[in-house]
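With this grant's support, we have paired protein sequences with backbone structure tokens. One protein thus recorded is set out beneath this paragraph:

_____
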Amino acid sequence: MKTIVQTMRVPFLILPPMCVVVGVACAYRLGASISAVDVVLILLGALLAHISVNMLNEYQDYRSGLDNCTIRTPFSGGSGALPSQPEAANAVLLGAVATLVGVAAIGFWFALRVPEILPLGVLGGIIILTYTRQINRSPWMCLIAPGLSFGLLMVLGTTLVLAERIDTATILAALVPFFLVNNLLLLNQFPDLEADAAHGRKHFPIQYGIAASVRMYRVLSFATAGVVVLAVGRGDWPLWSLLALLPWTLTLVSAKGASEYGKTIGQQPQFMAMNVVATVVTPLVLGVTLILG
């Protein structure tokens, strides 16, 4: 049981609630009558989706031998649970399948009321099933898949379920976690570059190198800030939403660390930690300001 829980990567499960908060805030601004039961089910589905992809990734990385080669940091390299407890592998796979079935059940329940969410759910399921073995072999798909899942699918899906429609303000709000989560996974790939390349992965840092990846990190970071400024300037969000730029500034520090330390950034966990904090807190602040503003 301890191994199963470890492969869920519980400390990272704080991200789905932040994305759901943004979606709920957008639905609230659209005048939706928000049901607490719906919010709980949406949150449960988001958590199960994250758990499923985490457990499947842990299982497949263990089976491929990658888990035995990575240098683990608090933010990358997997949990290391299965190499130390290999007899739990089948249970972890079963857990990944069971949580994915749970996600599908919740999705179909909502699709009966709002059929428009079905394509979002199908796309999310495909990403979960193909992330480790297929998506990680395509530099650009691997770059955008995390943000697509947590940003666009979770935020837009939440708003669509609760308000049964989305608007420009919602799309712009979804872009904030889209850019940030892409950067979160991009930076976390730096310490594993050599091990990943040896096991057939071909994500962005492997294909284009560390220097290009740092430049991409900066592009995505400033795109996040640009969306915030644009949405406030257009009047889509309240002026208070500019407060989201405060935690966002941590990405600038992370970018500096990535530029300075490159693939050894795992030995400087403060930069990776700032990246995580920015990714989690920026959407939270945005969601709160959208509700209160």
